[in-house]
Prior knowledge:
Structural class: mainly alpha
CATH architecture of the largest domain: Up-down Bundle
Shape: globular
Low-confidence stretches: 1-19
Strand content: under 5%
Strand order of the largest sheet: 1-2
Radius of gyration: 20 Å
Oligomer: single chain
Distance between the termini: 45 Å
Number of domains: 2
Helix content: over 70%
Largest sheet: 2 strands, antiparallel
CATH superfamily of the largest domain: GntR ligand-binding domain-like
Amino acid sequence: MQDSEEMGVSSSAPALPRLERQRLHDTVVEHLRKFIVEGVLAPGMRLNERELCETLGISRTPLREAFKVLAAEGLLVLSPNRGASVYRMSESEIRETFELMSGLEAFSGELACERITPVELAEIKALHYAMLACRAQNDLPGYYSRNQEIHNRINEAARNSALRNTYDAINRRIMSMRFRSNQHVDKWDRAVHDHEEMIKALEARDGKALAGILRRHLLEKRDAVLQMYLEAEHNAQGARKRA
């Protein structure tokens, strides 16, 4: 069966249905990105096209188109004759990328304190309280989505498009690691405390304080991620020795 038949689009259809194809494309990219962030598709994993097509209810054409987008974002690796696999960052890449992200977050915080509106601040506070409710329910995906939205809103409030574009590109590469860094309760609660301090600094329009909190917050994430990375490497080496 042709892809157009599977998506319900005939060859004689007017231009409007192309929007449906674009929505499908965006939806597939969004789902795959979510699978990577939440660890359903783990670093280094080779992707099974047939299984993913069945899971998402799509043909291979939109799946492969989505692979290209995620490869451009640095989330997938496309290899001739081997297909797609989830990109696995090295120890040095993790260290350097989180260091860079800490600077981008800090600069966002400084500018946001100068430029944020009362409405934007109120929306961020509402997201913060929703995030706390997710933490109380041990809802990590719900917590993480609101957590990331708070960081995004602070970045948007900085009103610097060059910063925004760089921030988005770098953040996509480490979102899955930021998600997993909250799986230990003590680190999760520490992150919640940091967010409470962020809100206070935003309310006070204290750019220096917010920049410091955000920088420390990201560097602590870096340390947590590196600890998990090294533990995984140690366990993998042990498994190879026992094999």
